[in-house]
Amino acid sequence: MPKIKTNKSIQSRIKITGGGKLLRRPTHQSHFNAKESSRQTRIKHGVKQVKKSDYKSFIKYLPYAKS
């Protein structure tokens, strides 16, 4: 049986922690941020955890990830 290909675009956007959690960057933070409040800008600087409901669909594209 051939190997399953890893989706490199998803692999570059997701970090897998030692406990198996998936971390991602918040959306809408690349440009058009001048009109945002400073609170909203600070929130966007951190990382967020992928929701449990989306976990399965992300892992499907990362078959050899350490999770």
Task: Give a written overview of the molecule.
- The chain contains three helices and three strands, in the order αββαβα.
- By secondary structure, it is an alpha+beta fold.
- A hairpin with a 5-residue loop joins strand 1 (15-16) and strand 2.
Q: What's the helix and strand layout?
A:
Elements (H helix, E strand, L loop, with lengths): L7 H6 L1 E2 L5 E3 L13 H7 L3 E2 L2 H9 L7
Antiparallel strand pairs: 1-2, 2-3
Largest sheet: 3 strands, antiparallel
N- to C-terminal separation? 22 Å
Q: Given the helix and strand composition, which structural class is it?
A: alpha+beta
Number of strands: 3
Q: Rough shape?
A: elongated
Which parts are unreliable, with pLDDT below 50 for 5 consecutive residues or more? Answer: none
Helix percent band: 25-40%
If you average the pLDDT, what whole number results? Answer: 90
Number of helices: 3
Q: How would you spell out the order of helices and strands?
A: HEEHEH
Strand order of the largest sheet: 1-2-3
Q: Summary?
A:
The protein is α+β, with helices and mostly antiparallel strands and 67 residues long. It contains 3 helices and 3 strands; from the N terminus they run αββαβα.
List keywords for this structure.
3 strands; three-stranded antiparallel sheet; 67 residues; alpha+beta
